[in-house]
Amino acid sequence: QGWARVRRAFGPVLLASLAAGVAWFVARDVVGHPNPFFAPVSAWLALGFAADRRLRKVAELAIGVAVGVALADLLVQWIGSGAVQVAVVLAASALVARFLGRGDLLAMQAGVQAIVIVGLPAAESGGALGRWVDALVGGAVALAVATLLPQDPRSRVRSLAHEAVTEIAGVVHLLARGLESADPDDAAEALTRGRASQPVLDQWREEAGAARYNARVSPAFRRHTGELEKLEASAVLADRAMRNARVLARRCVQVVSDGHDTAHLAGLVAAVAAATDDLA
Questions:
Q1: Name one GO cellular component term (predicted).
Q2: What is the pLDDT of residue 126?
Q3: What per-residue confidence (pLDDT) applies to 212?
């Protein structure tokens, strides 16, 4: 398993490492900073060692680093360094990041970089403004890599689509079983599972929109924009289907609990479940 993880991570790690080296070169030899510590840090953190190079994710991480560095530098110049200052700077950076975007990664990176800034003397890392510029350089290199060498934007969306439709099929199968056996617990379980699956449906819709945008700005994947638009539209339809399944589950719980004969409906619902399996 260890070697399998190494094989999967080799390409992304190599790419992120090269990007960090390019960021150092640009910040030192082009911009002229003698010790551009935050340039490779920003590039590495934004790209990471996973194959997931979605433009939105990379941008969130890059912005998080830049926000943390900039805000921490401003506050440190004003209030100095120390235990209390670490807490104040961390809280301020994280809250500003949350204001700028809802992504957890943005706030996390802003906070981490703020802590580093408070603990690292400016003289050792290029000065206050220099550190922020270095972070911008690293983020820009990471964004360039994510734009010019992106992963296939369809892969993640397809995976989420399969997972979501499989969940819909599972809910309908439970309904069919509950109707056939006249067991209200099966219908109740279908309702619970339907409610629990909402996050994957929401994620499918969000990821499809982000992937469609990434495809439009990427010359390599622009031809897939049409497919991604269909996947995005399908996410909306799947969400409606799940909502209808939950409504049906609520009605089934009541009908079965009241002792009505539902065996004749089980075959129809089972056919719908089988058709949904085929879609998945």
A1: membrane
A2: 52
A3: 85
Phi-psi region of 218 (alpha: psi -120 to 50; beta: other; left: phi over 0): beta
Write down the domain spans for the chain.
2-148, 153-279
d(CA 221, CA 68): 32
Residue 185 has pLDDT above 80, yes or no: yes
- Looking at residue 19, what is its pLDDT? 92
153-279 carries CATH number 1.25.40? no
Residue corresponding to tokens 């943390």: 68
**DSSP code at position 150:** P
**Contact in structure between 105 and 24 (CB atoms under 8 Å):** no
Q: How many CA atoms lie within 13 A of 9 on its CB side?
A: 12
Burial level of 181, CB count in 10 A (0-12/13-18/19+)?
middle
End-to-end Cα distance, the chain = 29
Helix runs in 26-152, H state only? 38-47, 55-79, 83-100, 104-119, 128-148
Q: Are 97 and 107 in contact (CB under 8 A)?
A: yes
Q: What is the mean pLDDT of the chain?
A: 83
Round to whole Å and give the CA distance between 117 and 135: 12
